[in-house]
Amino acid sequence: MTVTPPRFILASASPRRLDLLARLGVVPDAVDPAECDETPRPQEAPLAYARRIAAEKAAVVAARHPGAVILAADTVVAAGRRILGKAETEADVAACLTLLSGRRHRVHSAVTVVDATGQARHRLSTTILAFTRLSPAEIAAYAAGSEGLGKAGGYAVQGVAEAFVRTLMGSHSGVMGLPLFETRALLRAAGVLRL
What we know:
By secondary structure, the protein is α/β, with parallel strands linked by helices. It is built from six helices and seven strands; from the N terminus they run βαβαββαββαβαα. The protein has helices at 15-23, 46-64, 90-100, 136-144, 172-176, 180-189, and strands at 8-10, 30-31, 69-79, 82-84, 104-114, 120-131, 165-169.
């Protein structure tokens, strides 16, 4: 008797997360972004925020797809206790890079997988990065491009901004938006991956 695997839904519209899943040999049956309120709560720490948002996204999409395996993630760039949201404008990118220039920061990437029975499992990856000191001209040149737009913290580590990273301790894929070590463990537990 052949067991049909449950449908696998990615609760994210991020093309980077699709690409990262492909590295594990996984292609979702569907992509269904959660569209939930991602406003941080007053005094909410970045780590708690990342966990909460990933869990909420997974719960919203799981309710729309009973019996499916759902994967949701959230990536937060934090300078101390300050959450750096997605840069929407060139000025946002410049402000983020000015803040991160020459200093360490953390990237928290939370992953939640809801299995076919409705059980949620959670994993978290925290990566510490240190940027080199950037000149105003370097910041302006990067901000003038589109790479940092729509990205948490105003930069994409898989692009030109990788050259700004002096040190990285943790998960490179987690900084990109989906920590593969943690994701693989969760997908194996949910029966999506065998390896």
